[in-house]
Amino acid sequence: MALFSKKKEVVRELPKFEEPLFPEMPRERVEHGLSELPSLPSLPSMPAIRSEQIRTQPRSFTMDMSESREISRLKEPIFVKIDKFRDALSNLEFIKKKLQESSELLDKIKAIRSNEEEELEQWSHEINLIKDKIDMIDKKLFSEIEQ
Fold it and tell me: In this structure, is residue 84 part of a structural domain?
């Protein structure tokens, strides 16, 4: 008498998959009472970065002999290809231009914020005047009634 016997392998086929049918939904755009949004301004394209400009290996922090030679060579004239120099100049000019635009926008935002603060102070002052007048009217009316 054997304690373990081989089980018969039963292979069943899965039922065929039928894709469910969903009701058709209307494709109308629902308006929420909002006016059409303005389009975003187009941005100038960024200059392409060449694969040579991307450093592939991380730089180590230890200084070996080849790096010390590089430092000593820095005192000598450096020769750069004209196209790379022009690319660097154009990139630098682009960055300066964007920095100037950012500075001008920041100044405009500061001016708007200060104008808002002034208006809020005026509104606060006017509200306090109205409160004082209402308190005065309230005192005059109720003081005559209580007498």
Answer: yes
